[in-house]
Amino acid sequence: MSRTHRLFQLMTALRRSAGPVTAASLAAETGVSERTLYRDIDTLRGLGAVIDGEAGFGYTLIEDAHLPPLQFDDEELEALVLGLREVTQIGDPALAEAARTALTKLRARLPERSAHRLEYAVLSARRFVPPPAPGIDSSALRKACWDEAQIRFDYTDKSGAQTTREVKPLQISFFENSHCLMAWCVLRSDFRAFRLDRMSAMERTGTSFRPERIPLLRAYLDQIRAASFRKDQS
C-alpha cells in the first residue's frame, strides 16, 4: 500500500468516527504500527487537517481543510441519504461499503446544520429480504463493463439448464430484488439479461469491444422502452 493511499485511508477512518478513536484502532485499520500511525497523524496535521487528541487519549477529526463545505437544500439531502442507504441495502459488499464511505465523506463536508439533517434524515431504505448474493465478483464485472472487455461465464437458467455464455457486458441493473447484467450475447446474437446470482466462473476472453458499449446500451434501452410502450398500449 502506498503512503498516499494509507493517508487517505486514515482520513476516511477519522471522518467515519463519531468520537475519539484510539491509535491502536487506527493503526489496525490502516495496517501499520502505532509508531507509524503517530507519524501519519502529524503528516495530516501538517497538510492542514485539524485533528484533536494525542497518544493515549484517541483522535478526532475536527476540520478537514481539503474538503470545503458543500451546500445542499433539505430535499437534496433527503435524496442523497435515500439513494446511498438503498445502495447499502441492495449493493454487493464492495458497493455497500462504498456507499457508507460516501455518506461519511458527505457528512465531513457539510455545514453543521446540514450534517445533522444528513445524520437524522426523515427518509431511509430498509430491505428485510436481501437480494441473492452474486455468483461472481461484482467488482470485476463492473470493471469489465468500463473496460469494454468481453467475458465468458457459466450460467444456470430458471429451469436449471446450464450453458456457457460469452457476452459484451453493458450495464448492471437491479430488477425485482435481483441484480442483472444487461449484455449483448455472442451465442444468441441478441441482447440478454443475466441474473448475477446464476452466473459463475467468470473470466475475460481477451477480446475488446471498444467503443461499442454506449451505442449497444442505448439500443438495448430503446428496445426495452419500446417493448414497455407496446405492453402499455395493449
Give an overview in words.
Pfam families: HTH_11, WYL. InterPro entries: CBASS_pafABC_assoc_protein, HTH_11, WH-like_DNA-bd_sf, WH_DNA-bd_sf, WYL_dom. This is HTH domain protein. Helices cover 46% and strands 24% of the residues. With 234 residues, the protein is an alpha+beta fold. It folds into three domains: 3-63, Winged helix-like DNA-binding domain superfamily/Winged helix DNA-binding domain (Arc Repressor Mutant, subunit A, Orthogonal Bundle); 74-119, no CATH class; 138-233, SH3 type barrels, CATH 2.30.30. The strands form two sheets. It has a five-stranded antiparallel sheet with strand order 6-5-4-3-7, sandwiched between helices. Strands 1-2 form a two-stranded antiparallel ribbon. A hairpin with a 2-residue loop joins strand 4 (162-175) and strand 5 (178-185). Helix 4 (74-90) packs antiparallel against helix 5. The radius of gyration is 22 Å and the shape is elongated. The N and C termini lie far apart (58 Å). The model has no long low-confidence stretch (mean pLDDT 88).
